Fold this protein.
Amino acid sequence: MGIYKCNVGCIWVLVMAVIMTLIPRYWEARFVSEAASHQPFNIPPTIEVTEGKIEENTTLVATLADFNVPVTIANEIALLIKPVFDVRDIRSGNLFRLEKEDGALRTFEYKIDDERVLKVERVEKLEDESESYAARVEKLELEERESTVVAEIQSSLWNALADYPKHDWLTNQLANSIFAWDVDFSSDIQPGDTVRMVVDEYYHEGKFVKYGDIHAAELVNDGKSYRAFLFRDSYYDEKGNSIKRPFLASPLEFNARISSGFTRRRMHPILNSVRSHMAVDYAAASGTPVVAVADGTVTSSGWNGGYGRLVQIRHASGLTTGYAHLSRIADGVRPGRTIKQGERVGAVGATGLATGPHLHYMMTRNGTPINPLSIKSEPPVPLPAKTKPEFLKYIAGRQEKLNSSTLTATAR
Ligand SMILES: [Zn+2]
């Protein structure tokens, strides 16, 4: 390395010497013009760079003042920022960078989030030596890579993906969107189940920023394989059947377990007598979001005796669902209002006759109570026959990626 550098240096000196000998007139002209513009020659400005994190309970102006930016300039900058970014949204702990030239502020950068930077730059130096600045929000340039995520589930999907960055997002997509219709992640997951995904990842300067589309996903649950492929903004299985169903497999986020199933006879824990339990109970922390399992119309919402806070929804095909013991009912969930599948109806609680926080989830068909878990097997809707060849061609590559991704090769 040392020898190499010396060689480059020697050649450089030689080349410079040749150039300077051959064209002295260039240098004469250059000295004259430098003198004419009153610029100090050959004295580089002192650049001072400060990087840090925004402290707690502080403002932009105070932060700038802390680093010896005159308050008048700090105030001017705060005003300039206003149209492009709300300075009240400045978060403690976020990174900033100050660059000063000969003691005067040249640039100020604040990292808003993983994708955006607020930039304040000096744009001109006026006759009276005062500074003028311009502010803008810049989107970071992101590099897209298609990658494979593979994990084996031991306890929960969340734990299985815990080593991946932003795994909350991945878990949520799989459990509450892609496979929400097929698998109830609160009750169906078995140790040894596996997940595979082909997903876009976005990087900035080599650092992971976020995920993009999940192009393909596979869940092997209790030996049964479920696959989903993204095609024109919707997910389909390998045969081109839509994976979207009229009913979600569960009205809860995935971190819940069934504490009591549907039965016509059981001992009631509070009333201490044999009663039927024509519902499914999910044990979940108070406050866990509860969502509508299907599109429908709210028929009742509010206090209802032993059910505590209860929301009831009417769906197509003579079906209704009921969500009881809620700690709160979501805003606007009132009788007569239409509600979409996946929309919040409220939060888990222990209101009414309940020994602890849980969701008492009921379903009826034509007025008769039925087991909500029996509704899983509604027929899927296929792609139109003429679209299918295109679909099969489109997913082939991703299918191959799922097939070839193995736990040992890609697990982190
Ligand atoms: Zn119950």
About this structure: The first strand starts at residue 47 and ends at 53. Residues 47-139 form a domain with the Nuclear Transport Factor 2; Chain: A, fold (CATH 3.10.450.350). The chain has eight helices and 23 strands. The helical segments are 2-22, 24-36, 60-66, 71-81, 157-160, 167-178, 388-404, 407-410.
